[in-house]
Amino acid sequence: MAGKFIISEDEQGRYRFSLVANNGQTLAVGTGFLTRMACINGIETVRRNAPEAPIEDLPPRNHE
């Protein structure tokens, strides 16, 4: 198994998902969704799009 998605409810009653690796490290966290079904749809979107997603490495911002 390559990890798992965990759905939880936050303090505002919104649903969030976390993608957790086998070693317990959190790899990604979804934004707050109004319904559990919307959260599941968010997980499915990540599953569909992530395998082909390119890495975009932006330059650091100037912090002056």
Give an overview of the whole structure:
This protein has 64 residues and is α+β, with helices and mostly antiparallel strands. It has a domain at 1-33. Helices cover 22% and strands 25% of the residues. It contains one helix and three strands, in the order E-E-E-H. The protein has one helix spanning 36-49; strands spanning 4-9, 15-20, 26-29. Strands 1-2-3 form a three-stranded antiparallel beta sheet, with helices on one face. Strand 1 and strand 2 (15-20) form a beta hairpin. The model has no long low-confidence stretch (mean pLDDT 90).
Give structural attributes.
64 residues; alpha+beta; 3 strands; 25% strand; DUF1508 domain-containing protein; YegP-like_sf; UPF0339_domain; DUF1508
Coarse morphology: extended
Distance between the termini: 45 Å
Strand content bin: 25-35%
Low-confidence stretches: none
* Number of separate strands: 3
Structural class: alpha+beta
Q: Give a quick account of the main beta sheet: strands, pairing sense, barrel closure.
A: 3 strands, antiparallel
What is the element string, with H for helices and E for strands? EEEH
**Largest sheet: spatial strand order:** 1-2-3
